[in-house]
Amino acid sequence: MSTQQRLQQETGEPFARISVEEAKKLIDSGDVQVIDVRRPDEYVRGHIPGAKLIPVDDFLGRASEVNASKPAVFVCAQGVRSALACEMAAALGQDSSLLYNLEGGTDAWIAASYRVKIGMDA
Q1: For this structure, is 86 an active site residue?
Q2: How far apart are CA 37 and CA 59, in angstroms?
Q3: Which of 6-20, 27-41, 92-106 has the least mean pLDDT?
Q4: Is the pLDDT of residue 48 over 80?
Q5: If 74 and its partner were Cys, which of 20, 82, 104, 106 is the partner (CB 3.0–4.6 Å)?
């Protein structure tokens, strides 16, 4: 059993919580999609480069925009809305072993001095 599977079993969450450092490694590998679930006004002020904006309030109607066969890191400001989006993705049948919630969200990303992009372009 992988560490992720063990943690999911212990917490009962259908996703893995990952640190900003773990998220950075996954993103740098290029084998992950980043889904930003904040509001557009938050996204435009600074987001992880390459992140796709799907506000959590719109997620159920736009879940098909997430590639279900590719790992997905969900991010919001602090990790609460992204956890909800992970739960929705799992409830819609996405493989929970491919769902990651960025602990601390964009706030932690910025605090770690990682690059952000300003504006609406991913």
Answers
A1: no
A2: 8
A3: 6-20
A4: yes
A5: 82
What pLDDT score was predicted for residue 12? 81
Nearest to 42 by CA among 27, 59, 23, 55: 55
pLDDT above 70 for 118: yes
Report residue 26 as tokens: 């996954």
Residue 96 above 70 pLDDT?
yes
pTM for the full predicted model: 0.89
**Cβ atoms within 10 Å, residue 75:** 29
CATH 3.40.250.10 applies to domain 3-111? yes
Q: What are the two backbone dihedrals, phi and then psi, of residue 54, each rounded to the nearest 5 degrees?
A: -135, 90
Give me 107's structure tokens. 């706030």
DSSP-derived secondary structure letter, 104: T
Is residue 7 predicted with pLDDT exceeding 90? no
**Could you say which of 27, 76, 89, 99 is catalytic?**
76
> How far is Cα of residue 106 from the mean position of the Cα atoms in its chain?
10
Q: Which two tokens stand for residue 28?
A: 């740098």
Q: What stretch of H or E contains 59? A: helix 59-62
